Amino acid sequence: MAFLMNGRSQSIKSSGELAFLQIASLSNFSANMSGAKERLQLQEKFEIMPETLGGQFRKDFPPYLDGLVRSEPHHYVTTPEFAKNAEDIYNLAPRPDDIYVSTFPKCGTTWVQELVWMVVNQCDFEKSKKEQLSIRSPFLEMNYMLPLKLAEKFEREAICRKANSPLVDKIMELICYWNLMDWLRPFIRKAISFVLGDCLRDLEQIDQMAGPRVIKSHLPLYLLNPSVLNTSKVVYVARNPKDVIVSYYHYHRLLEFHHYTGNLEAFADYFMTDRVYSAPFFPHLLDAWNKRHHPNLHFVFYEDLKKDLRGEIQKIAKFLGKTLTEDQLVKLTEHLRFDNFAKNETVNCEIGKEIGLMNNSGNFIRKGKTGDWKNHFSPELNERIDKWMQTNLEGTDLRFITELEQQD
Fold it and tell me: How confident is the model at residue 359, as a pLDDT?
């Protein structure tokens, strides 16, 4: 397989002769970012994970044609496509009025993203009803996750499904047959933006957005611009790992990008041995936990939101320097209650089913219950996870609530 480095093709052999990748620019964006005086060099290097190129792993994750990569020194697991673009993302210049919503996946990201956007925008319920959250608040690395072949597939299906025309289907078929997708990609992206809105912004588009920007990211803090914490505000959300495993398992079965075909027990093993996208779990959280006293970082637990949603909204508003009226607070609390949130078409990503990103067998916003893991884990699996948690939390003061008697 090949990675692009400084515009050149770099061959990486998957048969055991692995090479480290020092990621460099792949776009014209990097040279002209707002506020960037000189290009920052990302210290992470990415190496192909040979165990993800075949065997049971490929059976369980069939879309991962090029496997996954792991970085050094932090061991972050991601896609080869992200690795090519990691340094460009690292160079996105933060602004003083930016708010980053940062989490490991399935820790309440979308929930808090909507909360933060509403607080920053004076509880503009009218706009929130009309415009997808992904348009109002960009997902930083979304455009740089998918392997090229999958990206082409989803781009093609997005246009065909929205156009609902045999003629468009035939045109897209011919474009793919003649290998014109790369040449036409800028026009295709514009067409997708026209029918879906700017829900797949690239870095240049994010850089050009008017402030204040509410930016969502699943990246650990060390993969964001190193001046983020001293420049912008970061709301970091953590969730107990037992419920994360269950939620991430369902998520991997829901998204066609992952299309996980194995069972929960096997997935839990992949999770605990750092062989899933965005792993490892504990270093991601502990990095933010150790920075929780920084004045620009607000660390919130998902379980605290479930216990006292209104109170946590007030804490986040105070952190952001915003004051909500009693009427706004009441309405926002009701707006964010999980039963209402799951039905909200601007946040529940049902549009993903329309364009082929998700299958029809599940929902992006699922139960959201703390302690749902008890309905999924066998006693043996739960014991293994307890030992894994104990090992990884040893020597730290980070602790989790895994069950709640009462929750919103």
Answer: 57
Whose CA is closest to 157, among 354, 351, 355? 355
Tokens representing 336?
């964010």
pLDDT digits (tens, 9 = 90+) for 367-403: 678 899 999 999 999 999 999 999 999 999 999 999 9
Q: Are 44 and 71 in contact (CB under 8 A)?
A: yes
- What local confidence, expressed as pLDDT, does residue 7 receive? 33
The rounded distance, in Å, linking the Cα atoms of 195 and 352 is: 13
Q: In whole angstroms, what is the distance from residue 29 CA to residue 205 CA? A: 10
The whole-angstrom separation of Cα 60 and Cα 81 is: 20
CA atoms of 265 and 262, how far apart (whole Å)? 8
Per-residue pLDDT, 341: 77
pLDDT (0 to 100) of residue 315: 98
With contact defined as beta carbons under 8 Å apart, do 263 and 245 qualify? no
Instruction: Give the pLDDT confidence score for residue 4 in this predicted structure.
Output: 36
Name which of 169-178, 261-270, 299-308, 375-384 the model is least confident about: 169-178
- The pLDDT-based confidence of 3 (bands split at 50, 70, 90) is very low
Mapping DSSP onto H, E and C, the string for the chain reads CEEEECCEEEECCCCCCCCCEECCCCCHHHHHCCCCCCCCCCCCEEEECHHHCCHHHHHHCCCCCCCCEEEECCCCEECHHHHHHHHHHHCCCCCCCCEEEEECCCCCHHHHHHHHHHHHCCCCHHHHHHCCHHHHCCECCHHHCCCHHHHHHHHHHHHHHHHCCHHHHHHHHHHHHCCCHHHHHHHHHHHHHHHHCCCCCCHHHHHHCCCCCEEEECCCHHHCCCCHHHHCEEEEEECCHHHHHHHHHHHHHHECCCCCCCCHHHHHHHHHCCCCCCCCHHHHHHHHHCCCCCCCEEEEEHHHHHHCHHHHHHHHHHHCCCCCCHHHHHHHHHHHCHHHHHHCCCCCCCHHHHCCCECCCCCCCCCCCCCHHHHCCCHHHHHHHHHHHHHHHCCCCCCCCCCCCCCC
Per-residue pLDDT, 135: 85
Q: Which of 91, 115, 112, 103 is nearest to 37 (CA)?
A: 91
What pLDDT score does 232 carry?
98
CB 229 within 8 A of CB 291: yes
Q: List, for residues 168-189, the tens digit of each pLDDT value.
A: 556 656 666 556 555 555 555 5
